[in-house]
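We give this protein:

***
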Amino acid sequence: LALPLTRCKNMVMSFRVSDLQMLLGFVGRSKSGLKHELVTRALQLVQFDCSPEVFKKIKELYETRYAKKSSESGQPQQHRPPEALSIHSSYDRGSTVARTSLSTPNIDYPALYGKYLNGLGRLPPKVVKPEVRLVKLPFYTTLDELLKPTELVPQNNEKLQESPCIFALTPRQVELIRNSRELQAGVKSVQVVLRICYTDTSSPQEDQYPPNIAVKVNHSYCSVPGYYPSNKPGVEPKRPCRPINLTHLMYLSAATNRITVTWGNYGKSYSVGLYLVRQMTSAELLQRLKTIGIKHPELCKALVKEKLRLDPDSEIATTGVRVSLICPLVKMRLSVPCRAETCAHLQCFDAVFYLQMNEKKPTWMCPVCDKPAPYDQLIIDGLLSKILTECEDADEIEFLVDGSWCPIKAEKERSCSPQCPILVLGSSEVNGLLPAPNSNGENGKATADVVDLTLDSSSSEEEEEEEEEDDDDDEGPQPKRRCSYEKGLVSAC
């Protein structure tokens, strides 16, 4: 394997600047710089990231260059060094080359590629190393990637490390920043932001700061979000990890900007990336949601019928489901009913307040079921939006099995009314509601005094009258006061 690499390097060393630029451009590498920089870059490509396609490209460039040189000097092409071409001829017949041991002097990398290695197994295919990816943030639209996520590598054994980065903005990027509107005083909507996350390629990563983080832009330190205070004992305060806006400290010109990230090296690996983004507001996200996120009322109705459909395996049939028209976030009537498509419930929350809440403190959790409800999964319920305009005097509705709905009036507190009078025990002479029983005492008086439960028990006048009646009775002590209340009579309320 070393022999063909050496031959390939020799061919690259013979390339001119134009050849080197074509080779580097073919693999997406930078083509700028002096010739020795281009040669170094191309040799690194051959050494560490060479694939059959790259070998083929080197072959084409070399043959083209040598053919031109031969025609200019008048020499026939057959005088080309056979050693330089052996690798390419082997590549062309790579699929038919017989299996050979590693000691064979003429073996090359393309011929070995995919063959058995000492009987231990097949060589793995050339796989590009996966890159760290960051999750998309709804409030940030990426315009340019200034620096791909790059791992912060410690330079020594110290706990506090510094990692510098130097870059310059293009004139187009500078214009985008300068011409963008201001979200607030000194804060442009188009920004250069720094994002930091764990070095993990298994899935898109959320922003995560390393310990002891500090960011210096040119000659000034940039403010980094602090910790949320924790009111619960024993619970550590949390830190909101968001993109760090560097724009106000950068040179908006052709001058280079130097960014230095100070971080604590405590075993975990972090990567940083630089992006040119446009920051969105909650009002803009709401308008976008209204444009592309409204679910048609008929589709919502079909969803209701599906949820209320009798399950053949269930013995209980659901005849209806109640849905509140009050937002669980702010306890106010819904204006833009919204929920995530992944939510299993019909209950909605208000999109206006939900987006405003996540603009201040992004969590993207459904307030109804407490499950993730990211922006790209939000929908506006077209059926509930229609119901809100038709039902203004109720705060709750009930969906029926056929997809129809009916308002649920708020139950009034039970109170006294002609339709539901309070039962009064006593004679009809006082209020005339219920006749007293036909049982008189020896003096023609009722055996039970009037007890009117509708009157205020603290009325002083009634107490005086009762005392006078007690004084006029000389026959002896009256029996203990008791409500004469026929058996079987119940309250009307």
Notes: The chain has four domains: 2-112, 140-280, 284-407, 421-493.
